[in-house]
Amino acid sequence: MNTSSVAATDLPENAQASQAARKALQELQKTAIIGLGHSPDLQQIERHLAAIPGGAQILQQSAADSRDKGQQFMENLLLAQGACQFSRLPVADRYDELPDVPAEITAPLTAQQLQQFDDIGRGCEADDYLEVITRLLAGHQRAIPDTKLMPLVQRYQSQPAPLRQVLTLLSQRGEWLLRLDHQLISDTNALPNPQLPHPVNFVDWLQQANETDWQTLWQHWPNLNRQWQERYILTLNRANHELVLRFVTGCWSVVAVDGRERLIPLVARLCELARPPAPSATGILSSLKKRVLGESEVIPHLLSEANTLIVAELWNWILETRRDRSAKIRQLMLPLMYQLAQELPENLQDDNSRALVSALEQQLQCYLPRQGAHDTEPLAPEELTPELEALGIQNSRQYAKSIAAGRLVQLVELAGVDLIARYLQCTAAMVVTTLAKSAFGEELSPALLASCLRNRDPAALQSWCKHYTQDNYQQSNIVGTYVSHYGTAEMASRLVILCDSGLTNMACSRQMASTLSNLGLELSADHSAVFIQQLLKERHLYGLPLWGNVLNLNSNGQKLIDQYQQNAINKGNTVPPQLSAFTTLFALRASLHS
Amino acid sequence: MLNLTPEQAESLAPDAGTLSRARSIAKPANYRNIGYSERAIWGVARGSSDYDSFVDLTGPAFKCSCPVKKLPCKHIMGLLLLISRQPELATHCDTPPDGLEEWLKKRDATTEAKITKAQNKNAEVKDTAAQAKRAEQRESYVQQGVEELKRFLEDIFNAGLLEASKRSGDSWEQMSRRLIDAQAKGLANQLNTIHRKLGVGPDWVADCLTDIGNLYILIRAWENREQLPPELVEDIRARIGWTRSKDDVLLLGAKQNDHWLVLNQFMSYESDIYSQNIWMIGRDSGQFAQILGFGSDHNTDGLTRGLTNGYQISGELAYYSRWHQQRAELATSSLLANNILADHSWLHQHAHSCIRTAVSDLQTRRLRLPWASEWPLLLRDVRLVMKEDRLALVDQHQQLMLLDTNEVSAWQLLASMGKQPATLFGISHDGETLVPWGCLQNQHWTAFTFNREAQL
């Protein structure tokens, strides 16, 4: 900050009187606390008061009028307060200039767009509004304007997650404001890190990054909160496969071996969130997350669409990583290795990969014995054999209530429905059906889902949904979440079709809405019609997920909404305010696109 | 054509639910026979059956034939929202529909009766000896209460505030009740405030002493009332407990006709009571006016509706006090129809360009009425700077005034003013710091929102 100084000659004329009054007031306060009974002498106070112009005369007068000490004390109080309070005048003093407002790096919203945001806000719940604007703005590399930002900051001040979501959409001026208003943001990590490039510029920065830049990035990365990390990673949507991989390996190269464990969550996050056009690289790398964080959720492996070059590169990288000194990292890499071993193209397969697949198949024979054609009744491994241990399977209650069942779950997850299908000589969808109906159906549910998602097999996923999500809203949400994070447009479309078979929860779940939106999926005309029919049912009309879904409706969906609106007006029915907000939403999205 | 803004229409809503419902029906297809005159707006809302919706712009007041008792209902709000967006839908007509005319006549008769009653009341006061005797008796009661209060305060200081804070509340409550018996409710309220502050917060001693000082100066002013100007005595009496009804003020208060810019309005909600605080400034007179209103969830008649920040209304105000023209009541009719977007350029003429002169002027005013706690201040060409981690204003002479950002978040100031000079309106409670209420920059008036702002 610049410091401006002025000559200290501009002191108030009555500074001496003010000082005397202040001293008198201090003495009066002390006396007031303990009482006149314990502080009989008011002379000290009166000496100060006498220094105030006219003070001596007033004191004399009040002494003559006052009948006792109490009254005299209050007269003195009035004199001191009057001299103190009413003589205060501003003075020229030192001050610090505010820092300069930085230039904006994102295009500002037009007045019409701002108006559209207001109109949408009037038609939806606050949380939906936040979801809509963050999705729209982040997706189009725009910032929240100050006038919209601050009410959101104040609203979510005590809710860290949505607040951080808002803060990742700061304009430069918005950031300037928040840095100056200390009362608003106590968590400075929630604000952009000035040492790092803004997410808007991140891709350009990555393209030119050198070793020093990687070091800077890695130095600050762990301190970024999850929302900021996601914002950076999401910008990689604009990047190509090689750049995404470069981002990971660049960081890997500058991190000390012992510190690489900390890098894995970043890699995993990157893989979770980076969207097409970098699906292959992210898909491959996403498997790194498996069990790294000790989370119980299932992490899909999106290897099937990986291109050969990247699979090969990753295979080499993984083999190299295995030589790391950290046993934990080696353990963490195992599932990925088995996955890669199965996915390697014929010409890249080597002894290592064949041995790994063979070891898996042997264990399948033990615990998924064939019972006739395409059928099996799984057995839970009663003990952790050295063979199972070599596969990386552990004794843990993380996967199932029974440790034995947990071993089976790990084995199925590791092998995946594809390998099991090859082994049972049936389709992946049939494997799902068979295992879902088995005695361990419930325990195997997450493992099967992970495998379906990993293999990007819509038929298998559909089969899973039929068995596990019928009239189960929670399960529908789980699928929605996973498809959102790791799925494809094709998979999401398949899920939408499930609406036809009575799985309405799927279509109308909030997570499904996120799924479609995150995947940038525009529904086909037919699917739009299915969606609209579901959503316009009274019980769903005010439902939260509507917003996410509407973002993805194609022009046919818009027509259907218009028709519904017109019909309601013609019939004299009340038109829900959301519907007009939808139309505004479409217009705003189109305007941001352009 | 009707001059009603959507913001203004929305501000008339009694609650968020009604507003939301009104938005959904504010469509041309849902209304017919929409009309307006200088006095009123009307329309027929189509629903399960037709409802006649009327708005009397004087007041404003509302009537609807629907069964909802909380007014304005969704039909009236929908009508207002609709014509604020599409004023061309309303046809100008000097002859209102039958039901409306009857209602307006009834309202006029009621208003007239109120004025006559107030006039008669004042006439009676002058003429009736019994009234004079009652007034004298009240003065005597108040005098007794004041003397007891003075002794009570002396006792407090003899024992010490520390001791007083440890004592049970009985003696304080007893004194407060005594003051209410003595018809000095204003003094009782101030005493209760002091009692509540005892031992609370790090600066409680200084806070209590300031309040006791203000109370004592009021006592001394009462004692010396015979030497003081009658206008000031009126103010002192009001402070002590003599109340004035709104009708009395409208009839007897100091009138001021002007174009009033609505600077800002703040509504708080405490103990089931809504308290409204509106500040305006006159374009020609440069005088400030503060309008206070009170209401509850069940009765919001005491709250002023339909004013939009940054807009100006033309009309008459009646000030409560002739000594200190600040608190006022709106006497203007047809506020809605006269509402026009203000040209704010004149605001500069009434603003101080020197902080020191402005504060000096403020301190002089404070000396005239030391117990008043809210002092408006309008400063121009001031910039935001930092003074020891606090936001402050600096003028061209490098003089500083600290800003109090507890009630209004600093970001609002930063967002609207940035580093550029602006004209700022605020309220000072102590002559030292300023609570910002709004600012003018680039011909745009920004009214700040308050952290404790309540919505109806």
What would you note in describing this structure?
The complex is a heterodimer of chains A (594) and B (456). With 594 residues, chain A is an all-alpha fold. Chain A is built from 32 helices and two strands. In chain A, α1 packs antiparallel against α4 and α13 packs antiparallel against α14. Chain A starts with a strand and ends with a helix. Residues 1-13, 272-307, 499-503 and 538-545 of chain A have low confidence and may be disordered. By secondary structure, chain B is an alpha+beta fold. Chain B folds into four domains: 6-103, no CATH class; 129-240, no CATH class; 249-342, OB fold (Dihydrolipoamide Acetyltransferase, E2P) (Beta Barrel); 348-447, OB fold (Dihydrolipoamide Acetyltransferase, E2P) (Beta Barrel), CATH 2.40.50. Chain B is globular. The two termini of chain B are 30 Å apart. At the A-B interface, α1, α4, β2, α7 and α9 of A face α2, α5, α6, α9 and α13 of B.
Distance between the termini of chain A: 40 Å
Largest sheet of chain B at a glance? 6 strands, antiparallel
Mean pLDDT over the full residue set of chain B: 87
E-strand count of chain B: 17
Q: Unreliable runs of chain A, pLDDT <50, ≥5 residues?
A: 1-13, 272-307, 499-503, 538-545
Tell me the overall shape of chain B. globular
Average predicted confidence as pLDDT of chain A: 72
Query: Domains counted in the coordinates of chain A: how many?
Result: 4
The side-by-side strand order for the widest beta sheet of chain A comes to 1-2
Per DSSP, the total helix count of chain A is 32
CA-atom Rg of chain A in angstroms: 34 Å
GO molecular function (chain B): zinc ion binding
Keywords (chain B): Coiled coil, Metal-binding, Zinc, Zinc-finger
Coiled coil (chain B): 106-138
Organism (chain B): Parathalassolituus penaei
Describe the structure using short key phrases.
heterodimer; A: 594 residues; 4 domains; two-stranded antiparallel ribbon; 32 helices; 62% helix; disordered N terminus; B: alpha+beta; OB fold (Dihydrolipoamide Acetyltransferase, E2P); 14 helices; globular; zinc-finger (chain B); SWIM zinc finger family protein (chain B)
